[in-house]
Write a structure and sequence with these properties.
The chain is an alpha+beta fold and 228 residues long. The strands form 2 sheets. It has a 5-stranded mixed β-sheet, sandwiched between helices. It has a 5-stranded antiparallel β-sheet with strand order 7-6-10-9-8, covered by helices on one side. It is elongated, with a radius of gyration of 21 Å. It is built from 6 helices and 10 strands. Strand 8 and strand 9 form a beta hairpin. Bound molecules: zinc ion.
Length: 228
Amino acid sequence: MITSKWDKRFMDLAKHIATWSKDKSTGVGSVIVNDKKKILSVGFNGNPRGVRDDVEERSKRPIKDYYVVHSERNAMDEAETSLVDATIYCTFFTCATCAHGIIQKGIKKVVAPEPDWNAERYAESQRHAMEMYKEAGVEVQFYTEPSETLIAFWEIGCGGGRVHDIITADKFTSYIDKYKMKKIAQGIKITRYNINDKLGVIEFFVGKEKKLYLHFGNYEVNKFIFTR
Ligand SMILES: [Zn+2]
């Protein structure tokens, strides 16, 4: 999945909101948006309104868990409109309890960094959250910073594939535009193009029938997969 400009904007905002949390160990931020990219609500983790957060014992586990409202829950509770078909951006992958609310509110997509599925404290809850999302039909997109994601472009010819370029994900659209202009300069009349994210191919339409294909995929460095 290619991280879009808007994914980055909302995640950057969620990261900023996470800094408003007084939680000393894990500040988490959430942003809920609709399909028009309108922000419906935001939230960070903290005690309910009016409940003191300066009591020492409340800041330590297991007591802390009785007091702290998770950022996702806060964002959902603060929303003053329907969250059906909305997308929630979280700086930390959701727990199972927040997944309940996300599913029940009709949120259709969760964008968050992929968690460490074996981490001691949260992983079990997160694994169950993931299981529920799958069954309930909530799409999950694991977020990676565009600057960390490298994309390779190549053309398939009779001699096999040849890698053209390797770029960072934030330059994805501008790269395609430049490629198109280059072809036009070579006399190939490209009318429009279509990005098929699933198949990893861009179809360029030349005239009425002919198509030109440019393939793309995540580029792996030292077998480390930057995104999936
Ligand atoms: Zn939670």
